[in-house]
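ok here's the first one, seq then C-alpha coordinates
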Amino acid sequence: MYDVAIVGARCGGAALAAFLGRLGYRVLLVDRYARPGATLSTHLIGETDVYERLGIRKRMENAGAPSITRMRVDLNGTTFESDIVVTSRVIGLRRELFDPMLLDSAAIWPTVDIRLKTTVQSVARRGEATYIKLSDRNGCDETVKARVIIGADGRHSIVAEQVCSRKLQSVEYSHGVLYVYVEGLTEQVTPAVEWYWHKESIVIVNPIDKGMHCIAVMLPQAIIELWGSKPIHNMLEWLQQIRMLAPRISHMRIISPPRGLARIQGYLRECYGPGWALVGDAGAHLHPVSGVGIDNAVCCAEYLASALHNYLSGQELWEDAMQQYTYQRDERICPQYNAALLTLARTAETILSESEERLKMICTFPSFVHGMAEQAQQVYTTILEGMAPRGTGARNA
Protein backbone atom coordinates (compact mmCIF):
# COMPACT_ATOMS: atom_id res chain seq x y z
CA MET A 1 0.00 0.00 0.00
CA TYR A 2 1.18 3.51 -0.82
CA ASP A 3 0.83 6.17 1.82
CA VAL A 4 -0.23 8.72 -0.78
CA ALA A 5 -1.18 8.41 -4.45
CA ILE A 6 -0.93 11.69 -6.38
CA VAL A 7 -2.66 12.15 -9.72
CA GLY A 8 -1.02 14.90 -11.75
CA ALA A 9 2.75 15.52 -11.87
CA ARG A 10 2.97 19.22 -12.66
CA CYS A 11 3.39 22.06 -10.14
CA GLY A 12 1.20 20.92 -7.28
CA GLY A 13 1.63 17.17 -7.70
CA ALA A 14 5.39 17.04 -8.28
CA ALA A 15 6.06 19.49 -5.44
CA LEU A 16 3.84 17.50 -3.07
CA ALA A 17 5.62 14.25 -4.00
CA ALA A 18 8.98 15.89 -3.32
CA PHE A 19 7.93 17.17 0.09
CA LEU A 20 6.45 13.81 1.09
CA GLY A 21 9.39 11.86 -0.33
CA ARG A 22 11.76 13.88 1.82
CA LEU A 23 9.72 12.78 4.86
CA GLY A 24 10.09 9.13 3.84
CA TYR A 25 6.50 8.42 2.80
CA ARG A 26 5.81 5.92 0.06
CA VAL A 27 4.30 7.96 -2.76
CA LEU A 28 2.86 7.07 -6.15
CA LEU A 29 2.95 9.96 -8.65
CA VAL A 30 1.14 9.43 -11.97
CA ASP A 31 0.48 11.59 -15.01
CA ARG A 32 -0.81 11.02 -18.50
CA TYR A 33 1.97 12.98 -20.21
CA ALA A 34 5.17 11.35 -21.51
CA ARG A 35 7.19 14.39 -20.49
CA PRO A 36 6.20 17.85 -19.22
CA GLY A 37 5.39 20.23 -22.05
CA ALA A 38 3.78 23.61 -22.62
CA THR A 39 0.52 24.30 -20.82
CA LEU A 40 -1.71 27.29 -20.04
CA SER A 41 0.27 29.16 -17.42
CA THR A 42 1.01 32.52 -15.84
CA HIS A 43 4.78 32.26 -16.52
CA LEU A 44 5.56 34.30 -13.41
CA ILE A 45 7.21 32.86 -10.30
CA GLY A 46 7.61 35.18 -7.34
CA GLU A 47 8.22 32.95 -4.33
CA THR A 48 11.80 32.09 -3.42
CA ASP A 49 12.00 30.18 -0.12
CA VAL A 50 9.70 27.33 -1.11
CA TYR A 51 11.85 26.57 -4.17
CA GLU A 52 14.94 26.65 -1.97
CA ARG A 53 13.32 24.00 0.20
CA LEU A 54 12.58 21.96 -2.92
CA GLY A 55 16.23 22.23 -3.92
CA ILE A 56 15.61 23.83 -7.33
CA ARG A 57 15.96 27.57 -6.72
CA LYS A 58 19.47 27.79 -8.19
CA ARG A 59 18.46 25.72 -11.23
CA MET A 60 15.53 28.06 -11.83
CA GLU A 61 17.62 31.19 -11.52
CA ASN A 62 20.36 29.76 -13.76
CA ALA A 63 17.96 28.64 -16.51
CA GLY A 64 18.55 31.71 -18.67
CA ALA A 65 15.71 33.96 -17.51
CA PRO A 66 16.60 37.32 -15.94
CA SER A 67 15.55 38.22 -12.43
CA ILE A 68 12.73 40.73 -12.77
CA THR A 69 12.83 43.39 -10.07
CA ARG A 70 10.62 46.11 -11.55
CA MET A 71 6.89 46.55 -12.20
CA ARG A 72 5.71 48.92 -14.94
CA VAL A 73 2.05 49.88 -15.33
CA ASP A 74 0.97 51.81 -18.41
CA LEU A 75 -2.43 53.49 -18.80
CA ASN A 76 -2.76 54.97 -22.29
CA GLY A 77 0.85 56.16 -22.28
CA THR A 78 0.97 57.33 -18.67
CA THR A 79 3.46 55.07 -16.97
CA PHE A 80 4.19 54.20 -13.36
CA GLU A 81 7.24 52.11 -12.52
CA SER A 82 8.76 50.91 -9.27
CA ASP A 83 10.73 48.16 -7.62
CA ILE A 84 8.58 45.13 -6.90
CA VAL A 85 7.94 45.21 -3.16
CA VAL A 86 6.14 41.91 -2.50
CA THR A 87 9.14 39.73 -3.43
CA SER A 88 12.86 40.12 -4.04
CA ARG A 89 12.49 39.03 -7.66
CA VAL A 90 10.13 37.51 -10.21
CA ILE A 91 11.32 35.00 -12.77
CA GLY A 92 9.61 33.84 -15.96
CA LEU A 93 10.15 30.26 -17.12
CA ARG A 94 8.44 28.19 -19.76
CA ARG A 95 6.69 25.23 -18.24
CA GLU A 96 8.63 22.77 -20.40
CA LEU A 97 11.73 23.90 -18.43
CA PHE A 98 10.19 24.46 -15.02
CA ASP A 99 8.03 21.35 -14.64
CA PRO A 100 10.91 18.89 -15.22
CA MET A 101 12.82 20.61 -12.41
CA LEU A 102 9.94 19.88 -10.04
CA LEU A 103 9.69 16.32 -11.32
CA ASP A 104 13.42 15.83 -10.71
CA SER A 105 13.01 17.12 -7.16
CA ALA A 106 10.50 14.32 -6.55
CA ALA A 107 12.45 11.63 -8.40
CA ILE A 108 15.52 11.86 -6.15
CA TRP A 109 13.62 10.28 -3.25
CA PRO A 110 13.68 6.46 -3.35
CA THR A 111 10.21 6.14 -1.83
CA VAL A 112 8.58 8.08 -4.70
CA ASP A 113 7.32 5.90 -7.56
CA ILE A 114 6.76 7.97 -10.72
CA ARG A 115 4.66 6.58 -13.55
CA LEU A 116 4.16 8.69 -16.65
CA LYS A 117 1.94 7.89 -19.63
CA THR A 118 -0.56 6.56 -17.09
CA THR A 119 -4.20 7.56 -16.62
CA VAL A 120 -6.70 7.05 -13.82
CA GLN A 121 -9.82 5.11 -14.74
CA SER A 122 -11.62 5.05 -11.40
CA VAL A 123 -11.27 5.84 -7.71
CA ALA A 124 -13.07 3.94 -4.94
CA ARG A 125 -12.83 4.25 -1.16
CA ARG A 126 -13.24 1.05 0.84
CA GLY A 127 -12.55 1.02 4.54
CA GLU A 128 -9.31 2.82 5.32
CA ALA A 129 -7.89 2.55 1.80
CA THR A 130 -8.51 4.10 -1.61
CA TYR A 131 -8.31 1.86 -4.67
CA ILE A 132 -7.17 3.52 -7.89
CA LYS A 133 -7.52 1.77 -11.25
CA LEU A 134 -4.69 2.80 -13.58
CA SER A 135 -4.17 2.28 -17.29
CA ASP A 136 -0.90 2.78 -19.20
CA ARG A 137 -0.33 3.60 -22.87
CA ASN A 138 -0.06 -0.11 -23.70
CA GLY A 139 -3.57 -0.76 -22.41
CA CYS A 140 -2.39 -2.59 -19.29
CA ASP A 141 -4.65 -2.01 -16.28
CA GLU A 142 -3.62 -2.16 -12.65
CA THR A 143 -5.34 -1.38 -9.38
CA VAL A 144 -3.22 0.16 -6.63
CA LYS A 145 -4.08 0.94 -3.05
CA ALA A 146 -3.24 4.03 -1.01
CA ARG A 147 -4.20 5.48 2.34
CA VAL A 148 -4.86 8.85 0.69
CA ILE A 149 -5.39 10.00 -2.89
CA ILE A 150 -4.56 13.53 -4.02
CA GLY A 151 -6.00 15.24 -7.08
CA ALA A 152 -3.35 17.50 -8.59
CA ASP A 153 -4.66 16.96 -12.11
CA GLY A 154 -5.72 20.46 -13.09
CA ARG A 155 -8.89 22.16 -14.22
CA HIS A 156 -10.48 18.97 -15.53
CA SER A 157 -9.56 16.89 -12.50
CA ILE A 158 -10.59 13.25 -12.71
CA VAL A 159 -10.06 12.88 -8.98
CA ALA A 160 -12.35 15.84 -8.17
CA GLU A 161 -14.99 14.30 -10.40
CA GLN A 162 -14.61 10.80 -8.95
CA VAL A 163 -14.88 11.97 -5.32
CA CYS A 164 -17.70 14.43 -6.15
CA SER A 165 -15.94 17.51 -4.81
CA ARG A 166 -18.40 20.43 -4.71
CA LYS A 167 -17.64 23.88 -6.09
CA LEU A 168 -18.00 26.36 -3.25
CA GLN A 169 -17.61 29.38 -5.55
CA SER A 170 -17.72 29.53 -9.32
CA VAL A 171 -17.65 32.24 -11.97
CA GLU A 172 -17.12 32.49 -15.71
CA TYR A 173 -14.64 35.27 -16.18
CA SER A 174 -15.49 38.06 -18.59
CA HIS A 175 -12.09 37.76 -20.26
CA GLY A 176 -10.18 34.96 -21.89
CA VAL A 177 -6.45 34.90 -22.56
CA LEU A 178 -4.07 34.36 -25.46
CA TYR A 179 -0.31 34.22 -25.06
CA VAL A 180 2.72 33.74 -27.30
CA TYR A 181 6.50 33.50 -26.96
CA VAL A 182 8.45 36.04 -28.98
CA GLU A 183 12.04 36.85 -29.93
CA GLY A 184 13.44 40.22 -30.92
CA LEU A 185 11.31 42.39 -28.65
CA THR A 186 13.37 45.43 -27.67
CA GLU A 187 14.28 44.86 -24.04
CA GLN A 188 13.96 47.26 -21.15
CA VAL A 189 17.22 48.39 -19.52
CA THR A 190 16.08 46.81 -16.26
CA PRO A 191 13.86 43.72 -16.65
CA ALA A 192 10.28 44.46 -15.66
CA VAL A 193 6.84 42.96 -15.63
CA GLU A 194 5.01 45.29 -18.01
CA TRP A 195 1.28 45.77 -17.55
CA TYR A 196 -0.73 47.69 -20.18
CA TRP A 197 -4.32 48.81 -19.71
CA HIS A 198 -5.54 49.01 -23.33
CA LYS A 199 -9.20 49.59 -24.15
CA GLU A 200 -11.10 46.66 -22.64
CA SER A 201 -8.00 44.48 -22.42
CA ILE A 202 -4.96 43.89 -20.24
CA VAL A 203 -1.64 43.08 -21.87
CA ILE A 204 1.20 41.62 -19.79
CA VAL A 205 4.74 41.37 -21.14
CA ASN A 206 7.64 39.78 -19.30
CA PRO A 207 11.05 38.37 -20.20
CA ILE A 208 11.49 34.60 -19.99
CA ASP A 209 14.36 32.22 -20.69
CA LYS A 210 16.64 32.23 -23.77
CA GLY A 211 16.18 35.95 -24.40
CA MET A 212 12.50 35.53 -25.21
CA HIS A 213 9.43 37.30 -23.88
CA CYS A 214 5.97 36.04 -23.05
CA ILE A 215 3.13 38.31 -24.19
CA ALA A 216 -0.28 37.57 -22.72
CA VAL A 217 -3.41 39.40 -23.84
CA MET A 218 -6.54 39.24 -21.67
CA LEU A 219 -9.53 40.08 -23.86
CA PRO A 220 -13.32 39.84 -23.61
CA GLN A 221 -14.55 36.42 -24.71
CA ALA A 222 -16.35 37.84 -27.73
CA ILE A 223 -13.18 39.44 -29.13
CA ILE A 224 -11.11 36.25 -28.84
CA GLU A 225 -13.87 34.28 -30.53
CA LEU A 226 -14.12 36.96 -33.25
CA TRP A 227 -10.40 36.65 -33.96
CA GLY A 228 -11.11 33.07 -34.94
CA SER A 229 -8.61 31.55 -37.36
CA LYS A 230 -6.24 34.55 -37.41
CA PRO A 231 -5.27 35.06 -33.78
CA ILE A 232 -1.65 36.06 -34.46
CA HIS A 233 -2.56 38.64 -37.11
CA ASN A 234 -5.22 40.15 -34.86
CA MET A 235 -2.97 40.06 -31.80
CA LEU A 236 -0.23 41.96 -33.63
CA GLU A 237 -2.72 44.60 -34.75
CA TRP A 238 -3.92 44.91 -31.16
CA LEU A 239 -0.38 45.31 -29.79
CA GLN A 240 0.46 47.93 -32.41
CA GLN A 241 -2.28 50.12 -30.97
CA ILE A 242 -0.44 50.38 -27.64
CA ARG A 243 1.58 53.57 -28.02
CA MET A 244 4.46 52.74 -25.66
CA LEU A 245 4.76 49.14 -26.83
CA ALA A 246 4.34 49.46 -30.61
CA PRO A 247 7.85 50.86 -31.37
CA ARG A 248 9.46 47.89 -29.63
CA ILE A 249 7.71 45.16 -31.63
CA SER A 250 8.83 46.19 -35.12
CA HIS A 251 11.47 43.42 -35.28
CA MET A 252 9.63 40.97 -33.05
CA ARG A 253 9.17 37.36 -34.19
CA ILE A 254 6.46 35.12 -32.77
CA ILE A 255 8.01 31.69 -32.26
CA SER A 256 5.19 29.71 -30.67
CA PRO A 257 1.60 29.01 -31.63
CA PRO A 258 -0.87 31.12 -29.65
CA ARG A 259 -2.20 29.29 -26.62
CA GLY A 260 -5.08 30.17 -24.36
CA LEU A 261 -8.79 30.03 -23.80
CA ALA A 262 -11.68 32.27 -24.73
CA ARG A 263 -13.79 31.06 -21.82
CA ILE A 264 -12.19 30.61 -18.41
CA GLN A 265 -14.04 29.39 -15.37
CA GLY A 266 -12.82 30.37 -11.94
CA TYR A 267 -13.78 28.26 -8.95
CA LEU A 268 -12.99 27.23 -5.42
CA ARG A 269 -13.72 23.59 -4.58
CA GLU A 270 -14.00 21.87 -1.23
CA CYS A 271 -10.46 20.60 -0.97
CA TYR A 272 -10.78 17.41 1.06
CA GLY A 273 -13.05 14.55 2.04
CA PRO A 274 -12.69 11.00 3.39
CA GLY A 275 -9.27 9.85 2.21
CA TRP A 276 -8.84 12.49 -0.51
CA ALA A 277 -7.62 16.04 -1.02
CA LEU A 278 -7.11 18.46 -3.91
CA VAL A 279 -4.24 20.82 -4.66
CA GLY A 280 -3.43 23.30 -7.41
CA ASP A 281 -5.97 23.99 -10.16
CA ALA A 282 -7.86 20.82 -9.22
CA GLY A 283 -9.01 22.59 -6.06
CA ALA A 284 -8.97 26.26 -7.02
CA HIS A 285 -8.58 28.00 -10.37
CA LEU A 286 -7.89 31.70 -10.80
CA HIS A 287 -7.74 33.77 -13.94
CA PRO A 288 -4.15 34.08 -15.29
CA VAL A 289 -4.41 37.84 -14.74
CA SER A 290 -3.68 37.09 -11.07
CA GLY A 291 -0.17 35.95 -12.05
CA VAL A 292 0.14 33.61 -9.06
CA GLY A 293 -0.97 30.19 -10.32
CA ILE A 294 2.43 28.49 -10.17
CA ASP A 295 3.34 29.83 -6.74
CA ASN A 296 -0.10 28.98 -5.37
CA ALA A 297 0.15 25.36 -6.50
CA VAL A 298 3.61 24.85 -5.05
CA CYS A 299 2.98 26.68 -1.77
CA CYS A 300 -0.34 24.88 -1.23
CA ALA A 301 1.46 21.59 -1.92
CA GLU A 302 3.76 22.42 0.98
CA TYR A 303 0.77 23.20 3.22
CA LEU A 304 -0.80 19.90 2.23
CA ALA A 305 2.42 17.95 2.79
CA SER A 306 2.58 19.27 6.34
CA ALA A 307 -1.07 18.36 6.98
CA LEU A 308 -0.61 14.86 5.53
CA HIS A 309 2.49 14.33 7.66
CA ASN A 310 0.54 15.26 10.78
CA TYR A 311 -2.15 12.73 9.84
CA LEU A 312 0.04 9.89 8.57
CA SER A 313 2.38 10.14 11.57
CA GLY A 314 -0.55 9.94 13.98
CA GLN A 315 -0.10 13.44 15.37
CA GLU A 316 -3.56 14.60 14.24
CA LEU A 317 -6.85 13.15 13.15
CA TRP A 318 -7.67 13.41 9.44
CA GLU A 319 -10.34 16.06 9.94
CA ASP A 320 -8.12 18.27 12.09
CA ALA A 321 -5.18 18.05 9.68
CA MET A 322 -7.31 18.83 6.63
CA GLN A 323 -9.08 21.74 8.28
CA GLN A 324 -5.70 23.34 8.86
CA TYR A 325 -4.80 22.79 5.20
CA THR A 326 -8.12 24.31 4.12
CA TYR A 327 -7.55 27.36 6.30
CA GLN A 328 -4.07 27.94 4.87
CA ARG A 329 -5.22 27.44 1.29
CA ASP A 330 -8.23 29.74 1.60
CA GLU A 331 -6.30 32.44 3.45
CA ARG A 332 -3.89 32.56 0.52
CA ILE A 333 -6.23 32.10 -2.44
CA CYS A 334 -9.56 33.73 -1.59
CA PRO A 335 -8.25 37.33 -1.67
CA GLN A 336 -6.60 36.57 -5.01
CA TYR A 337 -9.81 35.06 -6.39
CA ASN A 338 -11.69 38.24 -5.56
CA ALA A 339 -8.89 40.52 -6.75
CA ALA A 340 -8.87 38.83 -10.18
CA LEU A 341 -12.58 39.63 -10.54
CA LEU A 342 -11.97 43.25 -9.58
CA THR A 343 -9.04 43.63 -11.95
CA LEU A 344 -10.99 42.32 -14.93
CA ALA A 345 -14.00 44.45 -13.99
CA ARG A 346 -11.79 47.55 -14.18
CA THR A 347 -11.32 47.02 -17.93
CA ALA A 348 -14.97 48.02 -18.42
CA GLU A 349 -14.70 51.18 -16.32
CA THR A 350 -14.38 54.42 -18.25
CA ILE A 351 -11.78 56.87 -17.04
CA LEU A 352 -12.91 60.44 -17.66
CA SER A 353 -10.62 62.48 -19.90
CA GLU A 354 -10.31 65.07 -17.13
CA SER A 355 -9.09 62.40 -14.72
CA GLU A 356 -6.62 61.07 -17.24
CA GLU A 357 -5.24 64.58 -17.77
CA ARG A 358 -4.76 64.96 -14.02
CA LEU A 359 -2.87 61.67 -13.99
CA LYS A 360 -0.58 62.96 -16.73
CA MET A 361 0.00 66.13 -14.73
CA ILE A 362 1.09 64.08 -11.72
CA CYS A 363 3.62 62.19 -13.85
CA THR A 364 4.82 65.34 -15.64
CA PHE A 365 5.70 67.54 -12.69
CA PRO A 366 8.32 66.19 -10.25
CA SER A 367 6.91 68.23 -7.38
CA PHE A 368 3.53 66.53 -7.88
CA VAL A 369 5.19 63.11 -7.67
CA HIS A 370 6.88 64.14 -4.43
CA GLY A 371 3.62 65.52 -3.10
CA MET A 372 1.79 62.33 -3.95
CA ALA A 373 4.46 60.38 -2.09
CA GLU A 374 3.87 62.53 0.98
CA GLN A 375 0.16 61.66 0.75
CA ALA A 376 0.69 58.01 -0.29
CA GLN A 377 -0.97 56.56 2.81
CA GLN A 378 -4.09 58.63 2.24
CA VAL A 379 -4.21 57.70 -1.46
CA TYR A 380 -3.69 54.04 -0.63
CA THR A 381 -6.45 54.06 1.98
CA THR A 382 -8.86 55.86 -0.36
CA ILE A 383 -8.34 53.26 -3.09
CA LEU A 384 -8.89 50.40 -0.65
CA GLU A 385 -12.07 52.01 0.65
CA GLY A 386 -13.30 52.31 -2.93
CA MET A 387 -12.73 48.60 -3.40
CA ALA A 388 -14.36 47.52 -0.14
CA PRO A 389 -18.04 47.66 -1.20
CA ARG A 390 -17.34 45.04 -3.85
CA GLY A 391 -16.07 42.65 -1.19
CA THR A 392 -12.67 42.44 -2.82
CA GLY A 393 -9.29 41.99 -1.21
CA ALA A 394 -6.37 44.26 -2.01
CA ARG A 395 -3.82 41.81 -3.32
CA ASN A 396 -3.10 42.10 -7.07
CA ALA A 397 -5.53 45.02 -7.41
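and now the second one, same deal
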Amino acid sequence: MRIGLCGSHRTGKTTLAMAISRRLATPFVKTGTSEVFRRFGLDPAAPISFEKRMWIQHRVLDAAEAVWREAGPGGFVTDRTPVDMMAYTLADAHGDTVADFSQLKAYLDRCFESANSFFDVLVVVQPGIALVYEEGKAALNRAYMEHLNYLVLGLASDERLKARVIRLGPGATGIEERVKKVLEGFGAEL
Protein backbone atom coordinates (compact mmCIF):
# COMPACT_ATOMS: atom_id res chain seq x y z
CA MET A 1 0.00 0.00 0.00
CA ARG A 2 1.35 3.43 -0.97
CA ILE A 3 0.36 5.94 1.71
CA GLY A 4 0.90 9.69 1.54
CA LEU A 5 0.32 12.20 4.31
CA CYS A 6 -0.83 15.63 3.22
CA GLY A 7 -1.64 18.84 4.99
CA SER A 8 -0.21 22.16 6.02
CA HIS A 9 3.37 22.51 7.16
CA ARG A 10 4.09 22.07 10.88
CA THR A 11 1.29 19.52 11.45
CA GLY A 12 3.64 16.63 12.26
CA LYS A 13 3.32 14.82 8.93
CA THR A 14 6.91 13.58 8.87
CA THR A 15 6.84 12.31 12.48
CA LEU A 16 3.47 10.66 11.90
CA ALA A 17 4.56 9.12 8.58
CA MET A 18 7.64 7.59 10.26
CA ALA A 19 5.48 6.19 13.09
CA ILE A 20 2.97 4.67 10.64
CA SER A 21 5.86 3.25 8.63
CA ARG A 22 7.28 1.52 11.71
CA ARG A 23 3.85 0.20 12.75
CA LEU A 24 3.14 -1.21 9.28
CA ALA A 25 6.75 -2.36 8.68
CA THR A 26 6.62 -0.42 5.40
CA PRO A 27 9.47 1.78 4.14
CA PHE A 28 9.33 5.48 5.00
CA VAL A 29 10.16 7.75 2.07
CA LYS A 30 11.11 11.30 3.04
CA THR A 31 10.46 14.09 0.61
CA GLY A 32 12.80 17.04 0.67
CA THR A 33 10.67 20.09 -0.02
CA SER A 34 12.80 22.44 2.10
CA GLU A 35 15.96 20.99 0.58
CA VAL A 36 14.66 21.67 -2.94
CA PHE A 37 13.97 25.30 -1.99
CA ARG A 38 17.48 25.65 -0.53
CA ARG A 39 19.11 23.98 -3.56
CA PHE A 40 17.66 26.78 -5.69
CA GLY A 41 18.50 29.55 -3.21
CA LEU A 42 14.98 30.06 -1.89
CA ASP A 43 13.70 30.26 1.69
CA PRO A 44 10.46 28.24 2.18
CA ALA A 45 9.32 30.76 4.83
CA ALA A 46 9.81 33.82 2.59
CA PRO A 47 7.19 35.21 0.22
CA ILE A 48 7.87 34.63 -3.47
CA SER A 49 6.20 35.75 -6.68
CA PHE A 50 3.52 33.52 -8.17
CA GLU A 51 5.68 32.92 -11.22
CA LYS A 52 8.55 31.74 -9.02
CA ARG A 53 6.08 29.66 -6.93
CA MET A 54 4.97 27.85 -10.09
CA TRP A 55 8.59 27.22 -11.08
CA ILE A 56 9.73 25.88 -7.68
CA GLN A 57 6.62 23.73 -7.25
CA HIS A 58 7.48 21.89 -10.47
CA ARG A 59 10.99 21.27 -9.07
CA VAL A 60 9.49 20.05 -5.78
CA LEU A 61 7.16 17.66 -7.63
CA ASP A 62 10.04 16.43 -9.82
CA ALA A 63 12.12 15.62 -6.72
CA ALA A 64 9.22 13.94 -4.91
CA GLU A 65 8.26 11.81 -7.91
CA ALA A 66 11.87 10.64 -8.19
CA VAL A 67 11.93 9.35 -4.59
CA TRP A 68 8.46 7.79 -4.88
CA ARG A 69 9.44 6.09 -8.14
CA GLU A 70 12.63 4.78 -6.53
CA ALA A 71 10.59 3.39 -3.61
CA GLY A 72 8.77 1.20 -6.11
CA PRO A 73 5.22 -0.11 -6.27
CA GLY A 74 5.60 -2.45 -3.28
CA GLY A 75 4.41 0.10 -0.75
CA PHE A 76 5.73 3.01 1.27
CA VAL A 77 4.68 5.84 3.57
CA THR A 78 5.68 9.41 2.75
CA ASP A 79 5.29 12.81 4.34
CA ARG A 80 4.19 14.89 1.32
CA THR A 81 1.93 14.43 -1.68
CA PRO A 82 0.93 16.33 -4.80
CA VAL A 83 -2.12 17.51 -2.84
CA ASP A 84 0.20 19.54 -0.59
CA MET A 85 1.94 20.94 -3.64
CA MET A 86 -1.33 22.06 -5.20
CA ALA A 87 -2.44 23.67 -1.94
CA TYR A 88 0.76 25.69 -1.58
CA THR A 89 0.55 26.84 -5.17
CA LEU A 90 -3.09 27.87 -4.84
CA ALA A 91 -2.47 29.56 -1.47
CA ASP A 92 -0.11 31.98 -3.19
CA ALA A 93 -2.79 33.10 -5.66
CA HIS A 94 -4.42 36.28 -4.36
CA GLY A 95 -6.86 38.79 -5.81
CA ASP A 96 -4.05 40.76 -7.42
CA THR A 97 -1.96 37.76 -8.51
CA VAL A 98 -0.93 37.85 -12.13
CA ALA A 99 -0.83 34.27 -13.38
CA ASP A 100 -1.06 32.39 -16.61
CA PHE A 101 -4.10 30.26 -15.85
CA SER A 102 -3.25 27.70 -18.52
CA GLN A 103 0.11 27.09 -16.77
CA LEU A 104 -1.63 26.79 -13.41
CA LYS A 105 -4.22 24.38 -14.79
CA ALA A 106 -1.50 22.26 -16.42
CA TYR A 107 0.34 22.09 -13.08
CA LEU A 108 -2.82 21.10 -11.18
CA ASP A 109 -3.58 18.42 -13.79
CA ARG A 110 -0.02 17.14 -13.42
CA CYS A 111 -0.43 16.97 -9.63
CA PHE A 112 -3.71 15.03 -9.82
CA GLU A 113 -2.14 12.62 -12.30
CA SER A 114 0.87 12.18 -10.02
CA ALA A 115 -1.30 11.57 -6.95
CA ASN A 116 -3.32 8.97 -8.85
CA SER A 117 -0.16 7.27 -10.14
CA PHE A 118 1.74 7.09 -6.86
CA PHE A 119 -0.83 6.73 -4.04
CA ASP A 120 -3.46 4.27 -2.89
CA VAL A 121 -4.32 6.16 0.32
CA LEU A 122 -3.93 9.80 1.33
CA VAL A 123 -4.11 10.86 4.97
CA VAL A 124 -5.10 14.50 5.49
CA VAL A 125 -3.36 15.70 8.67
CA GLN A 126 -5.07 18.81 10.01
CA PRO A 127 -3.39 21.39 12.30
CA GLY A 128 -3.69 20.51 15.96
CA ILE A 129 -0.29 19.84 17.50
CA ALA A 130 1.67 22.49 19.40
CA LEU A 131 3.76 24.67 17.12
CA VAL A 132 7.52 24.77 17.61
CA TYR A 133 9.85 27.03 15.63
CA GLU A 134 12.57 25.28 13.61
CA GLU A 135 15.23 27.01 11.52
CA GLY A 136 14.70 26.52 7.79
CA LYS A 137 11.08 25.41 8.16
CA ALA A 138 8.01 27.22 6.89
CA ALA A 139 6.53 30.11 8.86
CA LEU A 140 4.48 29.54 12.00
CA ASN A 141 1.48 31.51 10.84
CA ARG A 142 -1.71 29.85 12.12
CA ALA A 143 -3.96 31.75 9.69
CA TYR A 144 -1.86 30.62 6.71
CA MET A 145 -1.77 27.05 8.04
CA GLU A 146 -5.55 27.04 8.38
CA HIS A 147 -5.89 28.45 4.86
CA LEU A 148 -3.71 25.59 3.59
CA ASN A 149 -5.71 23.10 5.67
CA TYR A 150 -8.95 24.04 3.92
CA LEU A 151 -7.30 23.99 0.51
CA VAL A 152 -6.00 20.47 1.23
CA LEU A 153 -9.43 19.32 2.46
CA GLY A 154 -11.05 20.69 -0.72
CA LEU A 155 -8.45 19.17 -3.02
CA ALA A 156 -8.72 15.81 -1.23
CA SER A 157 -12.45 15.88 -2.02
CA ASP A 158 -11.98 16.64 -5.72
CA GLU A 159 -13.43 13.99 -8.04
CA ARG A 160 -10.20 13.91 -10.07
CA LEU A 161 -8.44 12.35 -7.08
CA LYS A 162 -8.79 8.55 -7.14
CA ALA A 163 -6.90 7.58 -3.96
CA ARG A 164 -8.82 6.74 -0.81
CA VAL A 165 -8.75 9.64 1.68
CA ILE A 166 -8.56 9.37 5.46
CA ARG A 167 -8.99 12.60 7.46
CA LEU A 168 -7.15 13.02 10.75
CA GLY A 169 -8.92 15.80 12.62
CA PRO A 170 -7.24 18.47 14.72
CA GLY A 171 -8.34 16.85 18.00
CA ALA A 172 -5.78 14.04 17.77
CA THR A 173 -2.48 15.46 19.04
CA GLY A 174 -0.52 12.61 20.66
CA ILE A 175 1.55 10.48 18.28
CA GLU A 176 0.10 7.16 19.45
CA GLU A 177 -3.43 8.53 19.25
CA ARG A 178 -2.74 9.82 15.74
CA VAL A 179 -1.27 6.50 14.55
CA LYS A 180 -4.23 4.62 16.03
CA LYS A 181 -6.77 6.88 14.29
CA VAL A 182 -5.02 6.51 10.92
CA LEU A 183 -4.82 2.72 11.26
CA GLU A 184 -8.50 2.61 12.27
CA GLY A 185 -9.20 4.52 9.04
CA PHE A 186 -7.72 1.62 7.09
CA GLY A 187 -10.22 -0.71 8.75
CA ALA A 188 -10.21 -4.24 7.39
CA GLU A 189 -7.54 -3.44 4.76
CA LEU A 190 -4.68 -4.22 7.18
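notes on #2: The mean pLDDT is 89. The helical segments are 13-24, 33-39, 50-71, 82-91, 101-118, 142-156, 175-186.
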